[in-house]
Structure formats: C-alpha cells, structure tokens
Amino acid sequence: MTTPxxxxxxxxxxxxxxxxxxxxxxxxxxxxAAVQEVRRTLAAQPPLVFAGECxxxxxxxxxxxxxxxxxxxxxxxxxxxxxxxxxxxxxxxKTLLQMxxxxxxxxxxPVVKVGRMAGQFAKPRSSTTETRDGVTLPAYRGDMVNAxxxxxxxxxxxxQRLLHGYHASASTLNLVRAFTTGGFADLRHVHDWxxxxxxxxxxxxxxxLARDIDKAMRFMSACGADxxxxxxxxxxxxxxxxxxxxxxxxxxxDSRTGDLYDTxxxxxxxxxxxxxxxxxxxxFVSRIQNPVGVKLSQNASADDVAELIxxxxxxxxxxxxxxxxRMGAGRVREALPGIVEAxxxxxxxxTWICDPMHGNTFTxxxxxxxxxxxxxxxxxxxxxEVHRELGTVPGGIHVELTGNDVTECVGGAERxxxxxxxxxxxxxxxxxxxxxxxxxxxxxVAEMLATD
Length: 452
Ligand code: PEP
Ligand code: MN
Prior knowledge:
By secondary structure, this protein is of the alpha/beta class. Helices cover 42% and strands 14% of the residues. It has one domain: Aldolase class I (TIM Barrel, Alpha-Beta Barrel), CATH 3.20.20.70. Strand 6 and strand 7 form a beta hairpin. Manganese (II) ion binds next to loops.
C-alpha cells in the first residue's frame, strides 16, 4: 500500500472546478484569507486514512449489498472537542464491539464496524441563526465551525477550528486503532461485557440469545479456536462530508492509481439537506474513490435516486454507493418500496442501510429533543419487512449512540421517561441511544436477522 501524495496542481484544478457550484450549509467565515491559510495548512498534513483501507471497506460494503455481511455504523450525532477523551472513546468503541458481537451471531455473517467518529464535528442546521430572549446569533454548526456557548464570540465561525478538528480526529482514530488491534477487541472480553448486560434484570428477555452466544463461544474455545480474528478487528471511520473547506484539502492523489481519495475518513456521506443533484456535495463525492453514502428521507423521489446513482456510481460498482434511509417509523413501509424499485431499474447494486434515528425525532412535553426507542426499533422492523418483500438486501444500520449512561432517548428496557431526560442530557445536537439502549437494539436486530 502506498501513501497518497499531497494533491498536485492538476487535481487542485479538478477539485477547484466544483468550487463554483452552490454548497448548502457552509459557515459564513468572517475572514476568507484566514480560511485559505488554514486550507493550505490542512493540505500539508498527513492523511488520516489510506486509499487501500478505503478500498477494503468498499469491498466489505459490496458484500453487505449482496447479503454476505452486515454493516453497523454508529456514534455521536456531533463529536465535540471536549469529549475527545480516552474514556469516551473507549466506551463508544466498546458499545459498538458489543453490538457487533451480538449482530454477528444473529446474522451468522461478518459485521462491518464503522464509527461515526474521528471527523463528525460539523452539523447541518435547519436554521442559520438561533434566537434566545430576543438575541439572534449564528446557529451552532459543530465544534469544527464554532462553539456552543450563546455569545457572539463563541458563535462566530473560526477556521482555526478546522485544524483543531483535524488533530482531534487524528487522536481519536489513533486510539480507536489501538483499541481494535491491541487486545481490547478480543471477542472473549466482548462476550464477557455482554454477560454484564444480561445480568441487568431489565434485560432478561434477551437471556436466550445470550445463552446461545455463550454456548457458541465455549464450543469455539473447546475446539481450540484462538485465531487473530478473535483478538483484533477492523474498524472504519465515517463522517458527514459537510465542510468542503475541510474535505477538499484532505483530498489527495493516490500514488498507485492517480485517483482522488478523501483521506479525512474511510466512508463519507452526504446528508439529507445537502444532496441537491447539482450541488457541490454530490459533485465532491462523485470525484473521490472512497465508498460514499447519501441519506434519503421520505421526501426522496425515484428520480432523485436514479440521478444520484448516475452521478456517483455511473459504473455500477457494488460497494461504491450506500443509501442510508431515514424515513420515520410511520412512513418507512410506504416510502421505501418506491425508492428500492427505482434503484433496481438503474441496474445498480447499492448497499441499503437503515438510519432509524433522524426520521423519529420529536420534542417531548418537557421540551427536550428526543426519540422513542420503540420508534427506532419499529423503523428497523419496517426496513427489514420492505426488503424481504421486494427480495432486496437489508445491509445494515446507522445509529446515533454513546457508550455512556445518558438519558436522551425515551423508552427501552430501563423505561426512560420524559421526566428522566433532564438527569443526563448531554448531546449538543440530536439525542443518542445510551449504552444499554444500544445493546438492546443490537439484540432486537439480531433477532430480526436470525429469522431473515
Ligand atoms: C445526521 O446524520 O446527523 C444528520 C443530520 O442526518 P440527515 O442528513 O439524515 O438529517
Ligand atoms: Mn443527527
């Protein structure tokens, strides 16, 4: 595997060609010269990921599209600089590994582990400003743009934050790589952690499945299984490729092939608010060789998906394009079939992933932005039903979660209620499943996969 070289003049030009396209959701940086300076600095930094790793992920996503693997994507809605700590990263990786172990058993398939991590520092917002007590300031757009405090200084976009974001991503990814290859990810530990989940009396419903996994583990160990795959795991980094002032300078030429790769993460997705067909984000991801995703709400049309495929995957390469649907528990059964049929007509093999979070957000009676665990489960159920009905493949799930015991989403076996949300609501953006709710979701999806 060769190191991607810093982008050369020719490719600067080819990426620059799209600089004139409209780009939604970009910060209004007060000083353009400062942004250009930061972009030059970023362009000289080492890549965070290698082209060859991105290609490996493309192959795994192609396997998921064929039903030969299952994808687990998860992490914070928005990472914050303050939360880049060993404990937070460990808890999130641990939660994802625990979920993956349960899903692997349920699906009898390899699980492709992808963190919404090491780059998920920028957010699209429904309003460009926020007003409190008659004072209007720019909206918080994520730590890579501005700070959350409601003061003019904090909310003014600061391009130095792009650099801080790069370093925060680098140290996150460094620890993730250490955890997943240095013994922490050993399947036997992961299984012991899951025993802890079942020991919680709220979770007795999952005892049967946990016992089956236990037996399988003992069987493997009796057989003397002690192979590398039990001790280490592949883990990939994904984020929304929102800030073009970050993603473009991180895009480099792969010296093996001359192709462009966004070296800020293995998998880059375009959000529901920035997937305009002639907009800069779709153009950008069409130029990079990383596997890419596009979020689709219930508002996506058959023409939208056909045109997205035309632009992003003209060669119909399995693994190249993932559609992450986020339609809402009450709408998925109605809205998804037309989209799946439209994709089928194009001849493309896309990877279908269910994001059961973003179509199920509401404001609780006490005023918190929340989600109901039941709705999350119900959307995944609808997603599986639609794909089973149409003979297509439900390839994975995409979840906003944390490894900590926050109270941001209601429901789950611990029955978090509206009145509990104030106890530990920490997200600056969307509500996340906590550690227990994440594991419970994994057990429920494992049951759906086992009957698939
Ligand atoms: C997100 O993933 O946090 C997000 C904003 O999603 P979407 O683009 O689907 O709304
Ligand atoms: Mn979100």
